[in-house]
Amino acid sequence: SVFTDERYAASVGIEKKSAILGSVPKNLNINQQNYVIAGAVSYHQYPSEENNGHYTAFVYDTSCCTKKGFIEFEIQCFKNRFDMVITPYHYLANLLDHRFRGQKLNQDQVEEALEYASSRYPEAMPFIIQYQAKSSPFREYLFSTENIENVSPISWWHSLQNSMNNVMFDLSMQVHTAVASSADIEKLFSTFGFIHSKVRNRLGIEKASKLVTIIKSLKSKNSE
């Protein structure tokens, strides 16, 4: 972290730099509250105007960082932090979201996503290529403004379930239900711990997973 490096503490203009860096944790907090991982990628890259767009500048625009007084090692810290938070799996989720389609990823990030998919989900690759090309079964009308604005990624992929193999469908469900919030993940572990402590080891993985989903859904409805 740039904050724990003694060179940063001794650098010129530390107060101004720290004020600029204040947008980073703010972005992270909003990100965790509101997004699954596909949206998290776009938010990290292109934060809203109210967050001043600083995180984008840190990661993608070295000249902007230099103008603001940041030196090379500080800029590298920002990039390292981004690489730790956003992985090829995140890029793949963004690519497979019909609202984003990886349009704001750079070429290296798209290649990372495709290489990851090719190594982990080779049977899904023909469908991913067809999806990128907007060829059957991913027809042009599926990417209309109306569908982008009103259809969730889960519903969008569900509508095409019978047009793809199980590997592609399961992958689409995984990437669009993976939450960006560590708090939500902790809640899932907590719920699993509650179930496991009650029934010991009599449950298999599949049954335990279903029970976690049911209890999480019930808690969500009760809180509404």
UniProtKB/TrEMBL annotation:
<dbReference type="InterPro" id="IPR012337">
    <property type="entry name" value="RNaseH-like_sf"/>
</dbReference>
<protein>
    <recommendedName>
        <fullName>HAT C-terminal dimerisation domain-containing protein</fullName>
    </recommendedName>
</protein>
<feature type="domain" description="HAT C-terminal dimerisation">
    <location>
        <begin position="147"/>
        <end position="213"/>
    </location>
</feature>
<dbReference type="Pfam" id="PF05699">
    <property type="entry name" value="Dimer_Tnp_hAT"/>
</dbReference>
<dbReference type="GO" id="GO:0046983">
    <property type="term" value="F:protein dimerization activity"/>
</dbReference>
<dbReference type="InterPro" id="IPR008906">
    <property type="entry name" value="HATC_C_dom"/>
</dbReference>
